Amino acid sequence: MSLEEKAKAAAKNIEGKAQEAVGNVTGDPKDKAEGKAKQAESEVRQGLEDVKDNVKKKLD
After folding, report:
1. How far is CA 60 from the centre of its chain?
2. Which residues, 6 or more positions from 29, have their beta carbon under 8 angstroms from its beta carbon?
3. Greatest CA separation for the chain
4. What pTM value is reported for the model?
């Protein structure tokens, strides 16, 4: 996983957790849902980068 992509995925995850927490505090279901969606996007990005890393290792 490239360092840049790893950092982007981590930032998206943190952003999602923060937004979900705001939604929990304010009771806003939209914020909670958007926060969870950002966290899911982060997991997908991390998974794709892991696949890329594994393919690269096998090719080397």
Report:
1. 28
2. 23
3. 50
4. 0.83
